[in-house]
Amino acid sequence: MQTRIITAIVALLVFVPLVIIGHIPLLLLTIALGWVAMGEMLRMTKTLLVSFEAILSLTGVVALILPQHFWLWVSDNWPMTVASDTVVYAIAFLFLLRTVLSKKSFNINDAGVLFLSMVYIGTGFHYFYLADQRGLAVLFFGMLTVWITDSFAYFCGKAFGKHKLAPNTSPNKTWEGSVGGSLIAIVVMSTIYGLTGWLHRPILEIILAVALLSLGGQLGDLIESSFKRHFGVKDSGKILPGHGGILDRFDSMLVVMPLLSILGFLR
What are phi and psi of 173, to 5 degrees? Predict the structure, then answer.
């Protein structure tokens, strides 16, 4: 417990100032987080970090994280049209070509797992950075929803949990904890944002958004649990003592941040 607390304090002391500063410092942090997260996925799949497919995956994560204005600048200063989607397509092609030339050491299943992970991680962190650019009120709307849901899902599960939510994926989670965490997140977030007016949105829209984000965050947690169970690991990494890896800490955010965009909060 002491290790978890110390790690959390140190992480917050680094993380919060960069979130407030935003722009290039936060973009560099976001790219670093994406790289570490993809590195954790490569470790889980037992892919060498110096292999061709690892380099493709890490390059793709960066391409997906970079904001649109970067690609507009590249297109203005490069003789060819270059954007994140063209880079990602080129990487997809190279992945497929690698399966042809690998002599069965790298097959279509391997390519599929790495490419899907690359898109999942890169897109999630792209919208994390974009949410910060839309303002701290928007970013913390997503982050607080996740934190409140996770915290109270744990306590409600401990107190009232009887029915397993996903026994084959995450046996400690219960329906009671899930519902309790979401309900408390709705009450707390609608109260905070309703009273302060930070988002300038109707209260019913905030309630609906919190409900969907809370659900999305829990699904992100289950997705990460499914990855770990499939590959037979307890934690995605060890970079955060007492907390596991970056994927362990950002699993919910990788779903919630794109969902913020779908719900229209990043316009």
Answer: -85, 140
DSSP3 helix / strand / coil % (the chain, rounded to 5): 75, 5, 20
For residue 149, which of 109, 183, 117 has the smallest C-alpha distance? 183
Who contacts 105 (Cβ-Cβ below 8 Å, separation ≥6)?
none
Dihedral-angle region of residue 103 (phi above 0 means left; psi in -120 to 50 means alpha; beta otherwise): left
Over the stretch 14-57, which tens digit does the pLDDT of each residue have?
Answer: 778 888 887 899 999 999 999 999 999 999 999 999 999 999 99
pLDDT value at position 242? Answer: 66
Instruction: Collapse the DSSP code of 209 into the 3-class scheme (helix H, G, I; strand E, B; otherwise coil) and give the result.
Output: helix
| pTM for the model | 0.92
b or e along 214-234 (b: 16 or more beta carbons within 10 Å of the residue's beta carbon)?
bbbbbbbbbbbbebbeeeeee
Q: Rounded to whole angstroms, how far apart are CA atoms 117 and 88?
A: 13
Pairwise CA distance, residues 54 & 169, whole Å:
27
Cα(49)–Cα(232) distance, rounded to whole angstroms? Answer: 19
Amino acid letter, 80: M
Burial class (CB in 10 A: 0-12, 13-18, 19+), 46: exposed
175 burial level (CB within 10 Å; 0-12, 13-18, 19+): middle
Question: What is the three-class DSSP state of 170?
Answer: strand
Q: How far apart are CA 27 and CA 31, in angstroms?
A: 6
